[in-house]
Amino acid sequence: MKTDIILAIDRYDRHFPFFDGTLEIPDTLALNVKQVGETSSERDGAHRHKRMLQDREFDAAEVSFSSYIMAKEKGLPFTAIPAFPRRLFSQTQMYVSLNSDVFEPSQLAGKRVGLQSFQTTLAVLAKGDLQHEYDVDIKSITWVTRANETVAFDAKPGWKIEYIDPDADLDTMLTAGDLDALFFSRTPNSLETGSVRRLFSDPKSACTDYFRSNGFFPIMHIIAIKNEVAEANPELPTLLLELYEQAKTISDTYLDDPGWSQLPWARMAREEQTSLIGLDTWPVGFSANKYNIDQFISYSFDQDLINEKIPAENLFHSSVLEN
């Protein structure tokens, strides 16, 4: 008898094997893969994080790492596998107006900075990096954020959080001068029109320095599974992790063909990346990611999103900790 599982993920290149039939899926597993976006609507809709963590719509899903940690600390019924389908450096996602006089992270102290939400993983990472990498007092900053938190929480005293309309256009607010900076997990349209710039004048070098100092490409998303599904199918976490390892092996070969991407220099970009920070920046498994996980848990605790530092092992199903 087959186990029927609905898995909701985004349409990244590392997820192509889940959609194009190149994965070797065990006969015991019937995997129904939904293409669900978060901020953008894909084939099967949008708002994947809330649909999983609030509505529990899917058996397993790609969700915000930050919100998942908060959900676990609150005792919500989820477990996870150590596969991380989205990663970003904060240094590429900090934006200021083209004419801004802010050129260094230290100059953000006391400013107004826009966030998608206070708990968005990129926001937590960027705040944590400001504090720990660049010695900025993040409680001096007014965090202007849309009222769309995935996991409910009450901000503790000492934080300056200004909630605005959930549909407010942060990009427009930045270009209009209502914000001094924007930490954004996507690319604002105003970057294309030339009205904003990245905070770091050489973001690639800033990311390289960060990687060499910390040893990882920061995690953004994780694969969560409903507890009831994992309990009914105890082999599922291991099977899903094995599929992620397969998908990584397959997607790692895409740029072997220099004409695979529409970007004419994509292959050379990978060669440059390898020379700067190495080839395997997307490790699968618990031990290879533990330092990254521990640091993010510390960031979440420092920002009062969780009340205690959860042991990293507690985030994952026990069957996959040794992988």
Write a compact overview of the structure shown.
The protein is of the alpha/beta class and 323 residues long. Helices cover 32% and strands 16% of the residues. The model has no long low-confidence stretch (mean pLDDT 97).
Number of helices: 11
Largest sheet, spatial ordering of strands: 8-7-6-9-5-10
CATH fold-level topology of the largest domain = D-Maltodextrin-Binding Protein, domain 2
**Arithmetic mean of pLDDT:** 97
| Strand content range | 15-25%
How many strands, what sense, and barrel or not for the largest sheet?
Answer: 6 strands, mixed
Counting helices, strands and paired strands, the structural category is alpha/beta
- Helix-strand string: EHEHEHEEEHEEHEHEHEHHHH
Helix content: 25-40%
The level-1 CATH class of the largest domain = Alpha Beta
Commentary on this structure:
This protein is an alpha/beta fold. The protein folds into 2 domains: 3-87 and 219-251 and 285-320, 3-Layer(aba) Sandwich (D-Maltodextrin-Binding Protein, domain 2), CATH 3.40.190; 90-214, D-Maltodextrin-Binding Protein, domain 2 (3-Layer(aba) Sandwich). It contains 11 helices and 11 strands. It has helices at 16-19, 48-53, 65-73, 121-134, 170-175, 189-193, 203-214, 227-232, 236-251, 266-277, 290-302; strands at 3-9, 29-35, 60-64, 78-81, 94-97, 112-115, 142-146, 160-164, 181-183, 196-198, 221-226. It has a 6-stranded mixed β-sheet. It has a 5-stranded mixed β-sheet with strand order 2-1-3-11-4. Strand 1 (3-9), helix 1 (16-19) and strand 2 (29-35) form a beta-alpha-beta unit. Helix 4 crosses helix 11 (290-302). The longest helix is centred in the last third of the chain and has 16 residues, at 236-251. The protein starts with a strand and ends in a 21-residue tail after the last helix.
